[in-house]
Write a structure and sequence with these properties.
GO terms for molecular function: FMN binding; metal ion binding; phosphopantothenate--cysteine ligase activity; phosphopantothenoylcysteine decarboxylase activity. This protein is of the alpha/beta class. The protein is built from 6 helices and 12 strands. The chain starts with a helix and ends with a helix. The protein binds cytidine-5'-triphosphate (CTP) and calcium ion. Cytidine-5'-triphosphate binds next to helix 4 and strand 9.
C-alpha cells in the first residue's frame, strides 16, 4: 500500500507542528479563545512520527489525548506560541502552523477579575498579535519547509485559490493548506477537504479524515524538497 512506500521517509528529520487554539487573557480567569480542537495538528504530528521523524508538538490548549512518542511544549497565548516556535525554528527541517492563534489580544489585560459596573456593558481594547507564520517564513535561520493553513469562506474554488495565493504571498511560507469553510463544519470534525498550494499554484488536493489529510501534507512537504 501507499503506507509501505511512505514508511520512514521522514527518518532523521525534526519537524515542529503547532496545534490547538490560543487563549488570550482578559483577566485572571477569563480569556478570548477559538473553536480549534487541535485534531488536524495532532494527526500531522502522529503521521510524521509514524514516518520516522522526531516530532515536537507545540500544543495550545489541546484537550484531546496527545499521542505518545512526541516531544510536547504546552503554550497558552499567541505570544507563548510565538516564543516556542521561534525557539524551535533553528533545529527544524519543517514547521507546520496548524494551530489557530488569536489575531488580537487585549492591550491591557485586567490584573484582577473584571467586575460588573451597574448594568453597563464592557469594552475591551485589542491589538494585533505577532504573526508567527509570517515571522518564521521571513526570518529563516536555515533551509527548511514552512507550512501554513488557511480556512476561508469562499464562494467557489476559483475564489478559494485566489484568497490562498494572496495569503501564501503575504505569509511567505512554502506551502499553504487551504480549505473552504463556507458550507461545512470543519472545526472539531473528523473529515476535511483541502487543497495544498505553493507559489506556483495547487500541488495537491485531498479529502478524507484528518489522518489521510496529514499524510497528503507530509507528501507535499517531502515533494517540495525532493528529499526534505
Ligand atoms: N497565523 C500565525 N500567527 C497569527 C495568525 C495566524 O502564525 N497571529 C498562522 C495560522 O496558524 C495559519 C496561517 O497563519 O497557519 C493563516 O491563518 P489565517 O487566520 O488564515 O491568516 P491571517 O493572517 O490571520 O488572516 P485573516 O485576517 O484571514 O484571519
Ligand atoms: Ca487569523
Amino acid at each position: 500500500t501507499v503506507d509501505a512506500v511512505r514508511a520512514r521517509d521522514l527518518a532523521g528529520r525534526h519537524v515542529v507542528v503547532s496545534a490547538g487554539g490560543t487563549h488570550e487573557a482578559l483577566d485572571p480567569v477569563r480569556f478570548l479563545g477559538n473553536a480549534s480542537s487541535g485534531r488536524q495538528g495532532l494527526a500531522l504530528a502522529q503521521a510524521a512520527a509514524l514516518r520516522g521523524a522526531r516530532v515536537t508538538l507545540v500544543a495550545a490548549n489541546v484537550a484531546l489525548p496527545i499521542p505518545s512518542g512526541l516531544e510536547v511544549v504546552r503554550v497558552t497565548s499567541t505570544a507563548d506560541l510565538a516564543e516556542a516556535m521561534f525557539a524551535l525554528q533553528a533545529d527544524a527541517d519543517a514547521l507546520v502552523m496548524a494551530a489557530a492563534p488569536a489575531d488580537f489580544t487585549p492591550v491591557d489585560p485586567a490584573v484582577g477579575k473584571i467586575k460588573k459596573d451597574g448594568d453597563g456593558g464592557l469594552t475591551v481594547a485589542f491589538k494585533q498579535t505577532t504573526d508567527v507564520l509570517a515571522t518564521l517564513s521571513h526570518d529563516r535561520p536555515r533551509d527548511q519547509v514552512i507550512v501554513g493553513f488557511a480556512a476561508e469562506t469562499a464562494a467557489d474554488d476559483a475564489e478559494l485559490l485566489q484568497l490562498g495565493r494572496a495569503k501564501l504571498a503575504r505569509k511567505g511560507c512554502d506551502l499553504l493548506v487551504l480549505n473552504n469553510v463556507s458550507g461545512g463544519a470543519v472545526f472539531g470534525s473528523d473529515a476535511n477537504a483541502i487543497t495544498i498550494i505553493d507559489a506556483t499554484g495547487p500541488v495537491a488536493s485531498a479529502s478524507g479524515d484528518k489522518t489521510v489529510i496529514a499524510h497528503h501534507i507530509w507528501d507535499a512537504v517531502v515533494a517540495s524538497k525532493g528529499d526534505l
